[in-house]
């Protein structure tokens, strides 16, 4: 039982990061009906930016994270603005455009930071916390707290602000939102910006947990994408539940099927999706009719 609980605790920490990535995917999808395939690459950019400002310029970790989020938010705005003319012409081209941006970001990452990775030390000192015989790393608690805060702030933004309400209206129906004077393009841009910021937050937080490398975003992007589908693509609570579920499943698979953990994780994921294709909370996306 103790080993099981320890495995669950370890999985929840990474699951919180997967949830942040899934939230970015879901936010763009529910607003535009678009899967942003450059999202994983933005995660990598965020991880490198946060680690660079933290290690090279000696900024405090929290400030380094904020700078990374701001820069990637601008990248999200640029991606949306370049792709916007394609939205009403050929949506498939817009989808392909996100893949193109991902390739460009990959190339820029290697040009700027090189093909080798870097280890990021934990910004939180101190021995693990002992609780009922379980060892909990302090940084794991920090990751959980920040991910929870980011999720709450996102929900409050969508439900309590005028801009968030406008994004919710756009997510329900583009035509109706336009008819009542809502600027759809602006809502789409904010969705991309916030989604990119969440990607940077995930990348920055995962740096001390994993090894920052050009392939980091690919691994996190796939897990976050799976989490979004598992919870219900476009669903905010679904992204959180899916992320935590994938994290715990990943942790159990790594403990019991070393060398085959990725295979086992996605076999279980596939089985669940075959039973419930729309995910736990059902798919949520914009009505383009």
Automatic annotation (TrEMBL):
It is found in: Cell membrane. Its main location: membrane. CDD domains: TM_PBP1_LivH_like. InterPro entries: ABC_transp_permease (IPR001851), BCAA_transport_permease (IPR052157). The chain crosses the membrane at residues 6-27, 34-55, 61-79, 91-116, 136-158, 190-212, 224-248, 260-279. Keywords: Amino-acid transport, Cell membrane, Membrane, Transmembrane, Transmembrane helix, Transport. It is a multi-pass membrane protein. It holds the Pfam family BPD_transp_2. The keyword Cell membrane applies. The keyword Transport applies. Belongs to the binding-protein-dependent transport system permease family. LivHM subfamily. This is Branched-chain amino acid ABC transporter permease.
